[in-house]
Task: inverse folding
């Protein structure tokens, strides 16, 4: 077992084998940290998120067993959930944050958040990201805004409907449409990247 | 509202709430719902990866160098064994003799037979694996002073699993491989070979089908290839034979 799969590492992690967790950290820290920076927008909170993610990987009893692409997905879901916990806690503590509508649009240049300086970036992740950005160009402004509200800012569908001043049903349809458009653009890409 | 045959809503959008709130199949209620709801199962299969991959839209950020330490300290506490290799001490107390005499080879051959043919006793399987023993591995090689690792002996019913994790090893060249040796009653047994990745980390799991195995120590050598049955190369890391940690069982 000279190059363990993510699944094998998780099995070792469940057997309380610390080096396996450290190997997973080496593999996924950049991805987790980069997403955490966009969710949290400041370094200290992003670091807390990373810590929460690897703590969760260490302590989870869930047995991970699936095809290659889904492990990344699982780690990103954990990352988002850790970010959501943080966001919701902060939201309860302060006044309602009103972000301007223009911020809510997916930034296709990726310039308003963390600097993108990493020569060692995995080429296939860059490729996937590029495809994602292209895909989001196909979204309408209201679709992009909705994705940002729900995915990045952690509002529930009901809360998003209230913020947009629209019926819940409309919001759900809009999200469904947005997902279909993204899926269309990414379907071929995913098979290439996660084979 | 229209119902499908199995009683779920014909336009069920529970899958969408699940995506928004971050549920996945690890949530029991949602998993059970997916089993009975065709719509949610289909939509989930269709959209959960896309949704998950939205995270990659984030620009790549440079991970702070000190973050790994902070994270590991938070999870494991400050490290108790700051594994500075006790090379000088080890050489005095544990002379490194890789000269295998003929008698030992014969014994190895016999013993290998015992290992291979030991029956797996049927009997009570313990409910979950438990770590029985732990060893730290220290560097025995000046070319790799930061080499270190751990070995855990894990009980799983009547099996024993030897789990080895190492770091700080140099990548191998050509056919070279690292080989793990277990010392039992003064004799060395082959636990298998592995290679490391570009960060110098590696892992290996070896199953022993004998519940009451007594292990004196471990050593890892750098071998010219992965086909050896006795050590030919240099010892890189190993355990200190005195003072492995208390039984955890």
Result:
């Amino acid at each position: 077992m000279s190059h363990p799969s993510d699944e094998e590492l998780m099995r070792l992690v469940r057997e309380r084998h610390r080096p396996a967790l450290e190997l997973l950290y080496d593999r996924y820290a950049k991805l987790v940290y980069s997403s955490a920076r966009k969710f949290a927008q400041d370094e200290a909170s992003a670091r807390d998120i990373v810590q929460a993610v690897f703590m969760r990987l260490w302590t989870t009893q869930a047995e991970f067993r699936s095809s290659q692409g889904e492990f990344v997905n699982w780690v990103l879901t954990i990352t988002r959930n850790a970010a959501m916990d943080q966001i919701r806690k902060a939201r309860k503590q302060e006044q309602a944050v009103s972000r301007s509508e223009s911020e809510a649009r997916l930034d296709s240049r990726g310039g308003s958040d963390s600097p993108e300086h990493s020569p060692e970036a995995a080429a296939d992740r860059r490729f996937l990201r590029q495809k994602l950005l292209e895909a989001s160009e196909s979204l309408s402004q209201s679709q992009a805004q909705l994705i940002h509200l729900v995915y990045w800012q952690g509002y529930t569908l009901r809360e998003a409907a209230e913020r947009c001043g629209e019926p819940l049903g409309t919001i759900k349809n809009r999200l469904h449409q947005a997902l279909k458009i993204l899926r269309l653009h990414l379907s071929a890409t995913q098979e290439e990247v996660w084979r | 509202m229209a119902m499908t045959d199995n009683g779920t809503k014909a336009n069920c959008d529970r899958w969408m709430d699940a995506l928004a709130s971050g549920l996945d199949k690890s949530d029991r209620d949602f998993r059970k719902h997916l089993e009975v709801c065709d719509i949610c199962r289909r939509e989930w299969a269709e959209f959960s990866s896309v949704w998950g991959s939205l995270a990659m839209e984030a620009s790549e950020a440079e991970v702070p160098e000190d973050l790994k330490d902070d994270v590991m300290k938070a999870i494991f506490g400050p490290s108790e064994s700051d594994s500075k290799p006790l090379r000088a001490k080890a050489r005095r107390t544990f002379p490194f003799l890789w000269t295998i005499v003929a008698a030992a080879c014969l014994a190895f051959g016999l013993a290998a037979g015992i290992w291979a043919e030991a029956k797996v006793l049927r009997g009570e399987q313990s409910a979950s694996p438990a770590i029985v023993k732990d060893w730290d591995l220290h560097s025995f090689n000046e070319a790799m002073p930061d080499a270190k690792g751990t070995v855990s002996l894990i009980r799983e019913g009547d099996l024993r699993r030897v789990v080895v994790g190492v770091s700080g090893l140099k990548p191998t060249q050509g056919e070279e491989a690292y080989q793990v040796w277990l010392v039992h009653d003064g004799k060395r047994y082959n636990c298998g070979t592995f290679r490391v990745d570009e960060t110098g980390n590696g892992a290996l799991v070896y199953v022993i089908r004998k519940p009451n195995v007594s292990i004196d120590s471990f050593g890892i050598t750098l071998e010219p290839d992965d086909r050896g049955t006795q050590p030919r190369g240099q010892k890189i890391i190993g355990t200190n034979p005195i003072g492995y940690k208390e039984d955890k069982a």
Notes: Chain B touches chain A through 58 residues (CB under 8 Å). Residues 63 and 69 of chain B are 12 Å apart (CA to CA). The longest helix of chain B spans residues 38-53. The helical segments of chain B are 14-21, 28-36, 38-53, 67-76, 87-93, 102-117.
